[in-house]
Amino acid sequence: MSVFTGWRAALRIARRDTLRAKGRSALVVAMIAVPVLGVTALDVTYRSAYPTTAERLTAELGSADALFRDPRSGPIEQLPDGEMYMSVDEEAVPDESGPAIDIGTTFPKGSRAIDIRSAPADVTTAYGITNTDIFEIRTSDKMVRGMVDLVRGSYPHGAGEVAATEPFLKSTGLDVGSTTTVRNSGRKYRITGVVEKPDALKTEALYADPGAVLAPWKADAKNDKKVLPPNERPVQWLVDGPAGAGVTWPDILRANESGVLVKSRQVVLDPPPDSEVPLAKKGYQSYVGGSDELSVAVVTVVAMAILEIVLLAGPAFAVGARRSRRQLGLLGTCGGDRRHVRAVVLGGGLVLGGVGAVTGAVAGIGLTAVLRPILENLVGHRFVSLELRPLELLGIAAFGLVTGLLAAFAPAIVASRQSVLESLTGRRGVRRSSRVLPILGCCVLAVGTGVAVYGGTTGDSGLVSGGSIVAELGLLACIPVLVGLLGRIGRRLPLSPRMALRDAARNRGRTAPAVAAVMAAVAGSVAVATYTSSSTAENEFNYVPTMTQGTVLLSSSYSAEADVAERLPRARPAVERSLATTGRRADYRRVWAGSDCNVYESESCGSLEMVVPAGKDHACPLTGKGAKALAARLSADEHKELMRSPACLTRLMPSGIFNSDMSSIIVADEALLDVYAKFSDPAAAEALAAGTPVLLNKTYAKNGEVTIKAVHRYSEKDKENRAQHPGKPRTTTAKLKVYVAPEKYAATPGISMVMPQRTAERLGLHTSPAGSVYTAAHPPTDAELQRARAAIDQAGGGLWVQAESGPYKMEDTMLVILTLLAGLVTLGAASITTGLAKADAEADLNTLSAVGAPPGVRRKLSGFQCMVVALTGVVLGTLAGLVPAVALRLVDLRDALKTMRAEPMESAYTPIVLPWSTIGLLVVGVPLLAGLLAMAFTRSRLALARRAG
After folding, report:
1. What is the mean pLDDT of the chain?
2. Distance separating alpha carbons of residues 613 and 365, to the nearest angstrom
3. From start to end of 649-703, where are the E strands?
4. What are the C-alpha distances in Å from 143 to residues 113, 115, 242, 245?
5. pLDDT at position 292 over 60
6. How high is the pLDDT of residue 942?
């Protein structure tokens, strides 16, 4: 018999065995298909989530050939991509107030163009008033397709109609058919449809036809001085070039001579040589992004996914081979030797691996299609299409097939070594565990961890992924010994869990592969979750708040109107009714010297500042001379301490929240310390009552005193104050005794010192009521803020409500996708693995019933058996997943230190934060789910079984 004939017979036997044991075969197929599904979905999503250059151009230009705009810089030179340009006169300053260029004269002859105009505006909502962007563009024009698309309803046509984005409708409580009023002009508009920007799905905006909103608004402002004109942005033009010609590079050069910047689809996709680009001749090059390159994190997780496929498929074929041992024994009685037994088992691997690979690939594509809307909302833009790369998908499927063969290899060898008698009688025999394997596993685990950590410190993605895989393999080798220890810890447990632990320890050949499969699935989830939680903690630490968390600010926004003091008392009850404020209110006043810079030009107004004393104790060592030399010697933790020192916080914390200048001095009483700074100190309250300022940042103090420098300059237009202070500007310095707050209050956003009113008057400073601060029960919602805006408007307007929104979540697209897919694969793999373990233990359950055990004991034993497998796998998987996560954070630390040593004020803080919620969910949820599934699918009655003899 030829080799091919032998394999044909083996494949035929494997196919028949697959069809005969449909349930077991389905589990084996699922074990291979689940990780293939995850990798396929990851590949398709990754390729679809990052748009190509042509797709990005469509999102920016629609179906037009080019976008023309005036940067107000005079004649310019630009690069072909339109992202970078420079004025021909390098000393020219952009003139925003100068006359606009007639851009239409720069279009190629025979072109068609539509303009894009926009401005922010206050509009009414279902709750109150909000501020949003209004775009005037003919959205029904075919040139806009791909840039702005209709989702539902109809396009706006003419005056009185607008279209809105879904986020705008969601935040305002409006819908198609609702009416909104542009407060600035008083005109009403009906919402006719919902549109979206495919490249920015979270945009909140309104769209109207040209001339529908801004032109009447400007006309009203011209006729009524109480109506402020729109703060209109520079006009842009979408241009369709002459048929068959488009907008060429010579067209762009001619437009550049007139000072017009052009982005042409044709030129970006097929740029001219550098010899024809004036700016390129000067050495300027376009920025080349790295979105097409896989990050170290993605490479590592994909490598672990490959190992996961192998580890998941292995126990599946091991169970299959054991369930078919009688059939393999019959093969031996018919003259088959070990070679034939191996061929049959490997044939099963080929058949089931092929079916699993194809099923996983197809299911992965289908899953991505089903989850596409969710994924698009997560990444914030539409996928132009599901990009399927046949070679990559074929490679993933082929790898699944090869994995099936490799996973069946070890069970094939084990099955071929069994004697015919053992196979026919169903006895598995007892084999002692290797004493060398655990020692070798510990060594491999240590070496793999060391390699991964070294790769993290050097930034080598190959070492990180390779070391992580080696460490996981080392932990894999230790599983049999760890499983053997389980039987010893169940001596005092109730019957079912005790039997489950002892069964796991006695049948290590069945338990260890199942534990390894769960471990592999959980390791990927833990690695992604740890990396994500650590990155989130880093972003939260680096975020500089504009206000104290949990507070709401009602401010006049430096209004120059004289009736602010009258409007504040009317606005405060409106805010208190609209927002969830708690506790008492803290009022504050602005303080300044000379003429108010909010009213008069900076050249003719005064200034106020606190003088930083001389000496290194009062200067931030991360700025100035020697900062880079110091940064080169600092560790990340040392740099973190310096960054949060009071001296460096003067550079880091924002100013201008309560005052328009940089002094961060406000006039208030002890209520503001309590409500805003969260500083409740009777001594500080007594100091303020006695006329002594409270200093929150000790950097400004020396020997308990602060130096205040004031320039009393009065504008000629400030007639009242100018009459009282004639003559030249005068500069005064005053030393004040201050109460210095503890060091932690130096991080209070926007305030460095709280000054009593009488102290400001003694120094000859001017003050004015500016606002109030409240404690909020929760961050204000969009609806609450809109209600507050409307209530303030009814009280006279001119005031604003602000709240701290917290750090913006900059989520990496691939990390979000990996987190979702890792969780899906973990749940599926754990369920299927425990199902296989249950199927393999069916004979033991039958024996239990034969000796009179009630059905409840069978169910409990089956449930606890699967819980033992799942819990052990989850714990080991958590340990295995921490290795790549820590190594990846070391890569980030290396990059952060490099950046910090170039720019010392850049943070190098790179924490490693364990995702305890995720780990807790895995430790509790996965074993509990596995146990409940096993109990649910365990039959109460004894199943009839054939005799072995």
Report:
1. 81
2. 65
3. 665-668, 694-695, 701-702
4. 9, 11, 14, 16
5. no
6. 53
**Residues whose CB falls within 8 Å of the CB of residue 335, separated by 6 or more in sequence, listed in order:** none
* CA-atom Rg of the chain in angstroms: 36
- Cα 649 vs. chain centroid, distance in angstroms? 27
pLDDT in tens, 771-816: 899 998 888 889 999 999 898 888 777 788 888 877 766 555 555 6
pLDDT tens digits along 410-460? 565 555 555 555 555 555 554 555 667 778 888 888 898 899 888 888 877
- 449-465 burial, b at 16+ Cβ within 10 Å, e below that, comes to bebbbebbeebbbebbb
- Among left, alpha and beta (phi > 0; psi -120 to 50; other), residue 583 is left
pLDDT score of 215 more than 70: yes
For 757-809, where are the alpha helices, taking DSSP H only? Answer: 757-762, 782-794
Rounded CA gap, 628 and 581, in Å?
A: 46
In whole angstroms, give the CA distance from residue 91 to residue 109. 33
Residues in the chain: 949
- Pick from 391, 396, 390, 392: nearest CA to 359: 396
pLDDT in tens, 530-559: 888 888 888 888 888 888 888 999 987 554
For residue 568, pLDDT over 60 is answered with yes
419-409-881 Cα angle (round to 5): 125
Structure tokens at 860: 């409990």
CB 260 within 8 A of CB 101: yes
Q: What are phi and psi of 253, to 5 degrees?
A: -60, -40
336 vs 235: CA distance, rounded Å = 83
Q: Residue 923: which region, alpha, beta or left (left: phi > 0; alpha: psi -120 to 50)?
A: alpha
Structure letter (DSSP) for residue 604 = G
Angle (CA) 849-925-512 rounded to 5° is 60
Q: Quick check: 197 and 148 in contact, CB under 8 A?
A: yes
Provide the CA 944 distance to its chain's centre, in angstroms. Answer: 55
Say if CB 7 and CB 14 are below 8 A apart. Answer: no
Q: Would you state the structure tokens that stand for residue 588, as one six-digit string? A: 């504050």
Separation in Å, CA 744 to CA 74, 646, 651, 665, 911: 50, 8, 16, 18, 21
For strand 581-592 and strand 665-668, is the pairing parallel, antiparallel, or unpaired? antiparallel
- The model's pLDDT over 224-255, given as tens digits with 9 standing for 90+, comes to 877 888 888 889 999 999 888 889 999 999 99
**Positive/negative CA dihedral, 331, 337, 338, 340:** negative
3-state secondary structure of 625: coil
pLDDT of residue 26: 77
CB 453 within 8 A of CB 887: yes
Residue 920 near residue 533 (C-beta atoms within 8 A):
no
Distance CA 929, CA 694 (A): 58
CA dist 172 and 786 (Å) reads 8
- Quick one: tokens of 222? 């011209």
pTM of the model: 0.77
Task: Give me 126's structure tokens.
Answer: 């279902």
Find the DSSP H helices in 543-669. Answer: 564-578, 627-633, 636-643, 646-652
Taking alpha carbons only, the member of 836, 755, 866 closest to residue 319 is 836
The 3-state secondary structure of 234-246, one letter per residue: CCEEEEECCCCCC
- Strand-pair partners of 135: 118, 207
Residue 706 confidence (pLDDT) above 90: yes
CB distance 919 to 874 below 8 Å = no
Q: Residue 148 in contact with residue 196, Cβ under 8 Å?
A: yes
Distance CA 743, CA 220 (A): 54
CA distance between the termini of the chain: 31
Rounded to whole angstroms, the Cα distance separating 403 from 410 reads 12
The C-alpha atoms of residue 190 and residue 711 are separated, in whole angstroms, by 53
CA distance 489 to 517: 23
